[in-house]
Design goal:
The chain is built from nine helices and no strands. It is mostly helical. The chain has one domain (3-7, 39-230). α2 (35-62) packs parallel to α5.
Length: 240
């Protein structure tokens, strides 16, 4: 594997998880986050992910990875589009029910989820639109990085299919280190499903839409089930 691909994998497996963890620790140290902090989080994450995609796409192109290898070619447009929409509806519904289930739970896990949701999920309509922009970015960028580039590079390196699926899914799980052990496990499982679908449908379009649906539902249903009502800040009351 080329040296620059090794650096990219080091970034995906070490730098990004640690960066996410450190950012979360800083957020958790704040007694209560407001609109400004959440909007800043959305904007910086969107910018960072597109920058990462730009660098990775540049090195992938320089090393001769083709759009087909990266999953950027759509094979059978109507079949893929229908599959993508049905899958998004199914996963979005499952995400909604899962969030409702978690909202009814109790204990330390519930408290951590409340704190996490209060700090990163939108608390108003003014925050929802930027959050959905983040969900679109995550669907496009993270799928390109983990199911596009990572799987293409690992395939070229000679790994068997199961190794490609498992390795890319582990990287995806580590990227969600900030969500704790449960977040790592759940995203690893989702990553495995997405990786298998990327192979089955020979492209990224379905998993990009599925990823967006899962994140978008989290932004809509998460605050409803996981965030307790808190007094609004004066600046937020004034802006309503």
């Amino acid at each position: 594997m080329p040296w620059d691909f090794w650096l990219i994998f080091m970034a995906l497996g070490v730098f990004l998880p640690l960066r996410g963890r450190l950012r979360l620790e800083k957020l958790m140290a704040i007694p209560q986050t407001g609109r400004r902090e959440r909007l800043s989080l959305y904007a910086s994450t969107i910018g960072f992910q597109w920058l990462a995609v730009g660098v990775v796409a540049w090195r992938a192109w320089a090393r001769g990875l083709t759009p087909d290898e990266l999953g950027l070619v759509v094979h059978g447009r109507w079949r893929i589009l229908i599959t993508a929409m049905l899958g998004a509806a199914t996963l979005g519904t499952l995400q909604w029910f899962n969030l409702r289930r978690m909202g009814r739970s109790s204990g330390k896990a519930r408290k951590f989820l409340e704190m996490l949701a209060e700090r990163i999920l939108p608390q108003s309509r003014a925050e929802l639109l930027p959050y959905l922009g983040l969900a679109v970015t995550a669907g496009l960028c993270e799928e390109f990085l983990y199911r596009g580039f990572a799987m293409a590079a690992l395939t070229r390196a000679g790994l068997p299919v199961w190794g490609v699926v498992l390795s890319s899914s582990m990287l995806f799980g580590l990227a969600h280190l900030y969500q704790g052990r449960g977040g790592i496990v759940s995203t690893l499982v989702i990553g495995t499903v997405f990786a298998a679908a990327r192979i089955a449908y020979d492209g990224l379009l379905p998993v990009m839409l599925w990823h967006f649906a899962v994140d978008a539902v989290a932004g809509v249903a998460g605050p409803k089930y996981l965030v307790r009502a808190v007094p609004a800040r004066a600046e937020e009351i004034h802006s309503i």
